[in-house]
Here is the input.
Amino acid sequence: MALRVSAPVPVRTPGPMARAAIIAGYVVVFWVALPALVVWLGLALDDALGLDTEPSLLGLAPLVPAMGVLAWAAVELRRCGRGLPIGALPPRRLVVSGPYRFMRHPMYLGWNVAVFGLGLLIGSPALAFIVAPLLLPAWMAYARIEEAGLVRRFGAPYGRYRRRVGLLPAVSLYTVSRLLVLAGALPVSVQGAAYVPKAGPAILVPNHTCYLDPAFVGRATRRTVWFTTTAEAFRSGPLAFFLRRLPAVPLRRYRPDPVACREVLRLLGEGELVCIFPEGERTPHGGRQAPIASVVAMIARVKAPVLPVGIVGGADVGPRWSQSLRRRAVTVSIGPPLSLPADAEGAAAEIAGAWDTLIPQGDEAVHLAGLNLGKLARILWRCAACGDEERFSPASLSCAACGARWTPTADGYLDGPEGSPTSLACLARAVFAFPEAPPLWMRASGFEERCMFGPIHPLRPLGEAELRLDPERLTFGGLEVSLADLRYVTTERADTLQVATATAMWQFRPTEGSAFRLKNALDQWSGAAVQRNRS
Here is the structure.
């Protein structure tokens, strides 16, 4: 992660004699007296506990790298921070390069590891396995106290740095996923990787088909890629725990989100790569969706290269309707930078045209073998040929009303009536195109956003009730929302409808039926008003 150093902070500089005295005192205390005291303590514990002492050259394995980290950190503090690792002679700039890219306090950790290696080298089991482990929580507690002063000195830049870099080095889920891709566990081939700049800001704009799209895009470059990610994933649970450790920017997709926009601009200003999915959410059926005008308008206004990315195979890895993940071959194609016009519609057309070039085959193949076909009802709730709901079976892809049948083929497509080939996405689009007859109701569990602004918190449960939609309103228990007031209609995962007005957001999870059908009905009935408010 390449972060730029902050502006210099005024620091009162002692005179030459005072400076020399401070440095000499620091060396005596921290590099002579303190190591001697720690070694004496380890040897004393060896004697008191009757531990056998046997020197081992294996101690050089941790000791030498630890001393290297100490030296590296000191050089970075002097080179980039114009200071020293001394409280009275602190760096004037926030240093985020060198070992500070991976951990916030490399000198403390290096010193700790050096004590462990020294214990092995001189044959002091107590020093290596008692004193060194006890030093870890001690310096971590002290570092927390020290960081309060760093926040006062450097302000918001240090706060952002602390959110991105751990107290200790950590292997993030993002790194693990990239290693899996590199190892072939997720076979991904890349075309056009040369278009990704080796340094400096850029925005990647891929189509969105699968949970693992960030890992696929990350395969195209050795640089860290920051992804805008739905705020829903950050609310609670194990997923939120892991996602907070990814290079991700939480985005409330159901309202304008200035916090996320500012963070994206900060990242680009710091020379980072940012990935934004212009479709907003994963395609429910594997076919492409149109870029959202409001998202594209924001991208077009940012002064950074915009690179189109086409992902082929993601829908087969993890079809959204099935909520399953499989090992399938994926191709990531990157195109040359786009020159986006200022108007949102023109910019959206430019991105869609680039995707047409990078994904020439159109709808993706989805192999149905091994998937729970009962979940196809989420996108195929009626016959795509005649529209019948009662006698259509999603699991067998057949309709007893009109006799239509679709047979999966070996290449991931379908043979339809009279042998005409088609795709699953094409069938789903035909289903979505049938007019929904009001009213539409389903039993559902409801949830409400406590506050649309501020930190992301778990939603407030509203219990279970009948969710009823008609062309005028949405009702759920005692809740009634006019469709004319809706600003955003989206879905979460594959089972939740999400709606928002200018001041409130609700989610509804049907116990039976399709969340995609609910969204489709709202899109049809609210018509141009919802589309206008989205843009």
DSSP finds 15 helices and 19 strands in the chain. The radius of gyration is 29 Å. The first strand starts at residue 188 and ends at 191.
